[in-house]
């Protein structure tokens, strides 16, 4: 019994203690039935909610839960009953009895055994307020860190990022919030190579703040960094200063440029303060005055000045903003002085007054002025002594100065000259045109006419300089003139000589063109003009028979006779040689022209006594009519010339009117000439070769190189159609040079291929032979191709030989010294004879085909050829017969002991490939080293 009582007492005491514990708990403790009604609440209800515990008993818990959380409370209640019997740290807003809201942290547990719900609630209102205040503080701090101009980040002692604003994140290209907690070098790996990292490490170790500027390579920008130790880490602030650095650099450069300009100025520059102490000078000042910069600084401005000590007098004007320009003497360190022009101005620098003095050394200027005065004196002396007339005229043309030469030239004494005006001194002078504001400032080589005091005129050549004001008005005219009266007379004579034939006195080609053009311009509509080209038929015979003097007599007589029969309105001219031109108005067209031509032929067929012998010149006349045949001067001359050649071809001593068909041949020839000019560059030429046979053994001796033109449109053009054109135009020089090089090149290749000697014969024109460097050209071709000189034979025409005998003989001797052979082509058709040949080092005579093929019953061809060959052999010359076309001719040539022959009977000209077959068939002398 006693044990039971003891246990009961213990339990009662425990219950009492538990009840006391519950009632004295600071947290609200509530027991709820399954329906959510409050069964019991502890005393904390009074302190926390303002309710007495028994006031809450029987009420539903929603009575103290804020209405906004009723649904949430219901949800928690259902969860406790069904899923989770325990919930902790549920933030619930409960209503205080006085209406206030109390924020509680609620823990709830459902006990199915007891059928009860146990709630514990703790007031966290102040705690929440503190937390919210902390959050607001952190937000304000974060906002401040985000809004500051600098990028900011903080790291702990483990180099992990504890904070970074987004500016720092943007700088390295990451999201700042996501980077928190990561190692710094993981977020910004480029720091490993930056000089910033050692500075961070030192600040971390020494716990000392740091500030520096660094160039961030990844973004190519300069940044300014400030590092502050905090806690166990460091905080870093940084911002970009590229613009600042560039501005500072630009400022430094500007200062350097200013200093350089200051020092490189051509004048000495000093800066003086308000006490007249020198505070700065440039290098030019040091060099001119002889002081070092440190010596200059601190000196008084008066130390280098002579005179003008009262500089204070200048201050009012300087302070009013007016620069002062002074001229004074300056003193150097060595005691020497120099004249100077000083420009002084005032300026302020941070409220302090300074004066800038620009000092220009006038030593050179004064020397130049002195030299100018001396030069003017010398100029005056030169003007007085010059043989050219000199004048100076004012704006109105009145003479203001003149030299003795002008007095002598004009016949006036100086006093009278200076009383004249230009228009009184000159008969002809363009003074009015020179006064044009847009006129020239100088005249050179102007011809004027001076009026001599005695009345006659003097031609002068005037060179002048015109000085004008800003508006272009003449201020003065300075001129020099020389007497050219004698020269003008000479020019008149030269003009006569330039426009007239010196032998006959007739107009020449130049004057003829002018007068014919005047006649064409003046010809009325429906009128006609005849242009007649005359060529004397027998002038060459007279010239050759009686000499050039008698030929000149004949030409003068012809000119006199032509003058007698033409009208004053007509024109007669001599073009040169025996060619004359008559141009006449012909109202009745061709009929009138024919009558004039008949008169001309009549007077020209009358005998003329030359050298005591009567001769008849005769003439061939070609007539072109304007405007029927041609409408320009040039075409009239051309068509008349064409008609003249037709008259000459028709038997001479007659006239022919131009006909359209006459131009066909001329046009064909001109077309060939146009095509011929680019033919060489286009590679249209090729060489054919005609074999030359040794008549003693009928073996191949060599070949003659013959040019062929493969015209792209006309096909193969015969040489006789284009060689003459090439000769006349001079194209033969380039063509001949190509033929020589091509023939030597191909012959050398043949010799190399067959190991046999082959001689090639190349034709040389008179134009080539006339070239001064022809021998050098041959020498160069032989050296370039490697052809032995003895394998080259040059064929020359008779006309080329006798054109300039002395020069030709000299050139042929040079060619012989080269070792080449020389041949005369078509011998017997020109004007040379065997006597001429003794003067030239000729090796071969090529007998023209006309001698080989002649058929004259009175003359034996064999006898003639044999006699010719014997004479040639007597002169140690070989003979080559051309034009061998029959076996009979071949046999009598062999009988006449002719050396070699070529012709269609033996072989036609052929391309190089065909020639190879001939060489293989005939053979040729083997080379000596083969």
UniProtKB/TrEMBL annotation:
Parts forming coiled coils: 358-385
GGDEF domain sequence ranges: 527-660
InterPro entries on file: Biofilm_reg_signaling (IPR052155), EAL_dom (IPR001633), EAL_sf (IPR035919), GGDEF_dom (IPR000160), Nucleotide_cyclase (IPR029787), PAC (IPR001610), PAS (IPR000014), PAS-assoc_C (IPR000700)
Residue span, EAL domain: 669-923
Positions of the PAS domain: 14-72, 137-207, 254-298, 375-418
Pfam families listed in its UniProt record: EAL, GGDEF, PAS, PAS_4, PAS_9
UniProt xrefs under CDD domains: EAL, GGDEF, PAS
PROSITE patterns (UniProt xref): EAL, GGDEF, PAC, PAS
Entries under SMART domains matching the protein: EAL (SM00052), GGDEF (SM00267), PAC (SM00086), PAS (SM00091)
Domain PAC: residue ranges: 322-374, 444-496
Domain of life: Bacteria
Keywords, alphabetical: Coiled coil
NCBIfam families found in the cross-reference section: GGDEF, sensory_box
Name of the featured protein: EAL domain-containing protein
Source organism (scientific name): Massilia consociata
